[in-house]
Amino acid sequence: MSASTIIVGYDGSAESRAAAAWALDQAGRTGAPVEFVHALEWPSYAPATRTIGAPPVWPEGEAARHLKGLMDEVVAQAARTSPQVEVRTFTENAPAAATLRDRSEGAAMVVLGSRGHNAVAGIGSVSVAVSAHAHCPVVVVRDGTPPAGPVVVGVDDSDCARLALEFAYRQAAARGTAVHVVRAWKPPAPPLERGPVIAEHLATAERAALDEVTARWRQKVPGVTTTSELVAGHPAQALTAAGERAQLLVVGSRGRGALRGALLGSVSQHLLRHATCPVAVVRATSPS
What domain of life is recorded for the organism (predicted)? Predict the structure, then answer.
């Protein structure tokens, strides 16, 4: 697997077509190859004489023809819209989330639609699982055209946030746009909120931390315009609001407030369900 390969989960749904279009645009900007992946766990089939323990076979007939047509269609569409992009396909009779996780090893990113044919609760269970377990950043795309705004990235003091910043700046440089850095902080709870000196002290410390981060990245990537915003409130709500004017919203898979052992933080999960623009989830370490 090339380190620049973009993996796309594709099932023919409107959301997966949007993911394919986003990935092809990304590949056109970076010169990366694209691999369209379709995985579906078909029921095991074998003739009556099948030996016990023998592996199931890939379905024949109409199902196989439908699958071939599905993949041929997306390859043909890619050739029409992005003829400069190298594309290939991969199909497997296996659970989709596990297949995409395996294909993500050594890849640049995985791109998924927000919902596939098996969508639940506003976002596909595959998107959530892959975002939590992939070996590379995962971008979840909604059907529709995002605004031509900046790349927005959420930061705190975690390792995940530092990796999210690096990913956001690479994306902004490739897209010729700005980075907008958002840091949310929680004002003091009662009765401390009655002490304005305490609240002011906390806000000053949070602003200093944000200014330090943005100054460092302005120096590292001077060709990308950087703006910043300090928000008093929950990071999930702050980033959802900022994402309304973003072409891409980037977040770490876990922040400093994540529960130990949780593979996908509550902020990431909230954004995957509620953000109106594509969301990139960047992991701090490769999952097992």
Answer: Bacteria
Q: How far apart are CA 181 and CA 155, in angstroms?
A: 7
* CATH numbers and ranges of domains, the chain: 6-141 (3.40.50.620), 151-282 (3.40.50.620)
Residues 47/49/53/57 CA torsion (nearest 10 deg): -20
CA angle (71 as vertex; 66, 74 as ends), nearest 5 = 125
Taking the chain, what is the end-to-end CA distance rounded to the nearest angstrom? Answer: 19
| Measured distance CA(56)–CA(76) in Å, rounded | 30
CA-nearest of 102, 98, 92, 49 to 67 is 92
CA–CA dist 128, 121 (Å, integer): 11
Q: What is the 3-state secondary structure (H, E, C) of 158-211?
A: CHHHHHHHHHHHHHHHHHCCCEEEEEEECCCCCCHHHCHHHHHHHHHHHHHHHH
* Residue 8, both tokens: 């796309």
Instruction: Quote the tokens at residue 94.
Output: 């296996």
Strands 138-141 and 87-92 turn out to be unpaired
Return averaged pLDDT per consecutive 10 residues of the chain, 288 residues in all.
87 93 96 94 54 56 83 96 97 91 95 65 71 93 85 92 95 96 84 61 91 96 96 93 96 59 68 93 62
**Which of 55, 94, 89 lies closest to 69, judged by CA?**
89
What pLDDT sits at residue 226? 97
What token pair was written down for 85? Answer: 């992009």
Three-class SS state of 123: strand
Those residues whose C-beta lies under 8 Å from the C-beta of residue 21, and which sit 6 or more positions away, are 81
Question: By three-state DSSP, how is residue 112 classified?
Answer: strand
Residue written as tokens 């990308």? 224
Angle at 136 between CA 94 and CA 13, to 5 degrees: 50
